[in-house]
Automatic annotation (TrEMBL):
PANTHER family: 2-OXOGLUTARATE AND IRON-DEPENDENT OXYGENASE DOMAIN-CONTAINING PROTEIN 3, PROLYL HYDROXYLASE-RELATED
Keyword terms: Dioxygenase, Iron, Metal-binding, Oxidoreductase
Source organism superkingdom: Eukaryota
Gene3D superfamilies in alphabetical order: q2cbj1_9rhob like domain
Signal peptide: none
Cofactors (names): L-ascorbate
Descriptive protein name: OGFD3 protein
Recorded name of the encoding gene: Ogfod3
Molecular function via GO: dioxygenase activity; iron ion binding; L-ascorbic acid binding; oxidoreductase activity, acting on paired donors, with incorporation or reduction of molecular oxygen
Domain Fe2OG dioxygenase: 140-242
Gene Ontology cellular-component terms listed: membrane
């Protein structure tokens, strides 16, 4: 793996840490949106946008939703926007599958908190990259993930492969992760790794920590396999292309 540097330790409380890196050419093969498409690229970590207590409340939303399903393998997802929920080796639409029972699982307050946190993350990304937050749109997939050490049963469970968000999803311009549990306390392994040519840079999750980065191949990354315990996070993705924008989830 070469040299590994820790960009953010679990024990750090980071106001703002940002590392600028040259942009890749990935953005050139997509339509550019002036004032939004990255011209400044890099990666940041902050513990000052979401409180630990808010992260715990959001984790409970994820736990309640995922308790309705869950993958047979080590990685389960819950997407409140599309309703996608891991169930066994497949996905179901939470809203269709459970119908009116959804009202017993989630509350309006849950969705309001989710929306509020998403807006704060969006504003912080816009501020750091020097763009207007109104020129960014939430895009899919934006989802909760729950990872444990159960062995993979399908390719959906194999979350640890290196990938580039812009290449995988096309619409992504800025990616963020809000961690909902603590590295080395709630789970082992499962660190986030930026894979640079000369070394790896890792982010150790802690509840309330937001990691964000431009989505091109300047930020090739992977997640280590979780060795023990359970790791919760939410991936929140943004595009500059309004045609790929999605709305916030609403209680159906």
């Amino acid at each position: 793996d070469g040299i590994t540097e820790v960009l953010a330790h679990r024990s750090d409380s980071l106001r703002d840490k940002f590392v600028e890196i040259p942009c890749s050419e990935d953005y050139d093969s997509h339509k550019r949106f002036e004032g939004c498409t990255p011209r400044k690229c890099g990666r940041g970590v902050t513990d000052a946008v979401v409180t630990r207590e808010e992260a715990e409340r959001i984790r409970r939303i994820a736990e309640r939703g995922l308790s309705l399903g869950g993958s047979d393998g080590g990685a389960s997802i819950l997407d409140l926007h599309s309703g996608a929920l891991s169930l066994g080796k497949h996905f179901v639409n939470l809203y269709r599958y459970f119908g009116d029972k959804i009202q017993d699982i989630f509350t309006e307050e849950d969705f309001a908190l989710y929306r509020d946190v998403r807006q704060r993350i969006q504003q912080r990304i816009a501020q750091v990259f020097g763009i207007s937050s109104s020129s960014m749109y939430l895009t899919k997939p934006t989802f909760f993930s729950r990872m444990n050490s159960t062995e993979a049963k399908t390719t959906h469970d194999e979350y640890w492969h290196p990938h580039i968000d812009k290449v995988t999803y096309g619409s992504f311009d800025y990616t963020s992760l809000l961690y909902l549990s603590d590295y080395s306390e709630d789970f082992g392994g499962g660190r986030f790794v930026f894979m640079d040519a000369d070394s790896n840079k890792t982010v150790e999750p802690r509840a309330g920590r937001v990691s964000f980065f431009t989505s091109g191949s300047e930020n090739l990354h992977r997640v280590e396999k979780v060795q023990w315990g359970t790791r919760f996070a939410i991936t929140i993705s943004f595009t500059c292309d309004p045609e790929h924008g999605i709305g916030d989830p609403v209680l159906q």
